[in-house]
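Memo to structure team: turn this sequence into structure tokens by end of day. - J.P.
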Amino acid sequence: RVQFYQGHLVDARTQEINGTAAALKMLHLSSGNFLLHRCCFEEPAEVHLPSILGLLAEQSLEEKRLFTLTSRLGMRNPRFVLSSRLQADALSPDQQVLLEALKQFPWLQALILRAPLPPLAILQQLKTFLDHGWIALEREGQEAGDWEEPDITYLQEVLFVGQKRESNLVVLGFPGSGKSQLMKTLCGRRNVQEKTIHSLQVARVTLREGMFLNIIGLTLQENFMQLMEKLSQNLAACIVLLPHPKNEDLEYIQYLLQQIVQQMSVPMVVGVTGGDQSPRPEQLVQLREALKLPEEIEIIPVCPRSFDSARQLIYNLNPVKGTG
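Reply from structure team:
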């Protein structure tokens, strides 16, 4: 049985099969009364899947764009806030989508994962938002702090003993502690020369004419002790920066801190970062006991992006009698 409409075969049926299969069977019959003028079958649309090389190239571009953005911002996972300059009515459809996503997911990593846009589009639109001043980093609007004359006098007494014109301050940071940001904050608004030597970050800060403070950053990893032996000969003070640790990390951190104390005999302080929340006083007491710090070493909370907080590290430097 076949059915036609305006000259087109629209249906075919047999006792066993229907549709296209029935029409094909009909065409192969050895007998029957029918005349076929034209027959065509709609071919399925061709699907072009991206090549592996194409996917890898797109991933590489995403990584480069992300690295460029985070390098510009100085943070791997910044938190964005909306600016009063933002006029939502003037945004394109994609920008409107990103705006709504920013309201729900202000952290960069969460935004890339959760916003209903491709990663490259998110990164491109974020750059546009930043360039126009529509968004800013949280606390970015605050004016950067700087060393005042009483601070410099204190630094001269503590770090420039013996009328020295140049002094070295090392910042030892555990991974994820905010070491690079703390170094940037400690530079204030001063004339700074920055460079990287092997695994060391070095920022040379001009405090006064002819008076220079070298801030040296080193990440605490397995091979750091070799560099520490070389650095310890010319150091004036040491800041140890660590994120509020998990219980399973305490033993390892305690071991590294003991190595540092034994290696150095310079003023030292331990700063603890806590992400969105500053460690509470009772947590710091428990942490001091767990790490078995010498009583002369202060352990204080610190926000690496705040100059006032970073400055407290300097004012809490205390001499430590090392064994190195």
